Description:
This protein is α+β, with helices and mostly antiparallel strands. Helices cover 50% and strands 20% of the residues. It has helices at 9-27, 32-71, 76-81, 84-124, 127-137, 170-187, 244-280, 300-305, 316-322, 329-339, 380-415, 424-454, 467-484, 504-520, 577-587; strands at residues 146-152, 158-164, 197-203, 216-224, 227-236, 285-290, 295-298, 343-350, 353-363, 369-378, 463-465, 488-492, 500-502, 527-534, 538-545, 592-597, 601-609. The site of adenosine-5'-diphosphate has 22 residues, from helix 14 and helix 15.
Amino acid sequence: MIPKLTLPRKVILLFALSAATAAIGIIFCERVEILLPAILLVFLNFGFAVKMLLKAMKDFNEAIAVIRKISYGDYSAKIDTTRNKELEVVEVMAKKLKDHDLHLSQRAYQTAMLKELSERISTSLDARDAMEIISGSLSKVVSYSTVSYVTFEKDGQIIFKCHLEESVSRSFTEEVKKKMLDTFRALSDAPIADDNIKMVYFGTIFDESARDPVRSFFNLPMIIGGQLVGLINVASTKPGLYAEQEVAILYVIIEQAGSTITKIRSVLAEEMGKINSMLAAVNEGLIMVAREGDLLVINKEAERFLNISGKENISTFDVIHALYGIFDFRGAMDQVLSSGKTETFSKIKVGGKHYKISASPVKNNQDEKHAVVFVFSDITQEEEIDEMKSEFISTTSHQLRTPLSSMKWFLEMMINGDTGALNDKQKEVVTDIYNSNERIIALVNDLLDVSRIESGKMRPEPTPTNLVEFITSMLVDLKAQFAKRSQEFVFEHPEALPRIPVDPKLIWQILQNLLSNASKYTPEKGKITLALSLEPENILVKVADNGLGIPEFQKHRLFEKFFRADNVNKSDGTGLGLYISRKIVEASGGKLWFESTEGKGSTFYFTIPVAGNKNAKVE
Ligand code: ADP
């Protein structure tokens, strides 16, 4: 201990007392009874004071010597002067400090690791990802020859993935695998067959000459929702490598990763529960399928109409199977994923009910299309009303046909003078009636075609046909119509076309409609072109005119029933021709489309498959 460098207070007190008694002796020098004790006290106090002063001076010298030793770097002097108990305290404190330091660096690693894990886990929720991250960063805390993990794949297969940090022999990794599987089997009830294990090795290459066995190792179990889902193993050829403290911190990390995933999964399950109860209340059938094919969502209504309610572990395969022959589910998914927009598909009939199908892409945070959601809307009621309407139109049209034909016949007789000669005025009126009757007959015929198409009664009846010959023979009447309006007509076609199996009546119905439209909607002296060309799989038919064209804002409605554009004379058409033509083309396996510029003209195209008509039912 370093002595104090201050003058003891007792010394000063004793000097003061001797001075005071000396003063009293001087004041009372005539009185012997006071003078004698005063002299005695002065001597006593002075003696003690001098003795204590000498002791203080000795301590002071010692202190100076110690301070000098410390200043020259001889620290033992300090220790020498430190009592044993204080030395112990210093030693304990130094150890605590060292421990604290270690603890802090481990905490720093733990925190960094947990941060990385939580960031990556929150987007994957996957035990395998967590193990991949942990095993990939273990090299920061421990040294090893191999780090491996085992876990389950989505299809139930076990995966054993091993990273070789140093070259080891195959028997080393086999030993690691065995140790891991033994632990896995001991901790889990899941059956693990040796032939159901996928092995992945990476890192450095194997060295078959290496003889070192596993000398140190430890296993870390990954538990999610109370279930063992995987195991990480660290192994080394060196003995006694893994201290309890290092392993303990890794346990904490993997345990926290497991509990984070467990928590997130339970929150997700709760949210899914809410969404599912909402979906259950929706009248539409909803199915959501991931890009890779996993079934993500199916609501009760969809399960019900697909007749798969109550089935366990419903998958996309069940959906495809239930819709087989009715709707190409996989094809529709591909179509939506490639177009990236909502698509509507033709109506289907399942279990006696009619459904309209639409499908939209679902995008994730990175704006990638990662799933498709299908909505099946029950339109049975609308369809029934439509059917009733069609039936009504069909019956009425049939009923009207006979009297209209009689009228036509009688009017023709009158115009021809078979019922007596008509004067000019009468002839004009009767001709007007005849033309109006013709328009009603055209409408009734169109309506009958529509109802035949909609009830599925119109079917192509293919026969091998030479299209050029057939069309040329049919053009006579139309050519007269073009000539009446002084329109130029050109028919372009290759020298020879193969005979193909088509229904000539239906082909002519389409052509007649397109060509008479071209004539109707092209002013006098205009030009109309009909062109046939052979493509690898189709015959392409083109009908072009340089007439009125179609207003841009109405193009999208052109194939609707009864639609007529604003720029045409409302009295010379029914608005059904294009609707019927497109249906017939589609039923024959082809396509019909157009290009048009208002004021410049229009071109209509349609294809006829060379393989012939599909002979499919018209929807
Ligand atoms: P319709 O000709 O009896 O009115 P369509 O269904 O054949 O019925 O045609 C529907 C509408 O499409 C027509 O009313 C017309 O507005 C437009 N259209 C069809 N073809 C042409 C064409 N070649 N040029 C301009 N407009 C056309």
